[in-house]
Amino acid sequence: MNLDSVNHFVHAYRMTPWRVQRQWIVTFLLAVITLAMVAALYLDVTAQAAITGRRIQDMTYQMSIIQQSNGDLETRLASLTSASVMEQRALNLGYRPVTTDEMEYLVVPGYVPSQPEILSAAPKPPVNLAGNPSEYTQSLLDWFDQAFQQFGDGR
Question: 4: domain range?
């Protein structure tokens, strides 16, 4: 070996600790950057979930307010259309109750009032076990017996 190659090896050996130290620093920085990216992703997902949860809470609150308002309006409509209020409104408009002497019934020839349909359960057709295939009437033990017989016959 000549002197130049020995000096080259010595110089390379002296630079090696710096290279190892640089590799450790780069590896550590990559690990820190990776952890920071994972943490940022986790925070983003968590923030989106929190925002969506808050929107759901707001919509649920608005829905309960609308349902309460709807119930109030239904109650008001029921009180405005009650028999006593409607009678008072009719009297205020100049209407009065009809007497039996003032009533007239009109008979329309050929008119047949509609009859209500009577809804009843239709009779169920009888179950015909004889017409069903054997797969639907065969028990599990019968099926095993048949399978073992076929296996024994060599089919």
Answer: 1-98
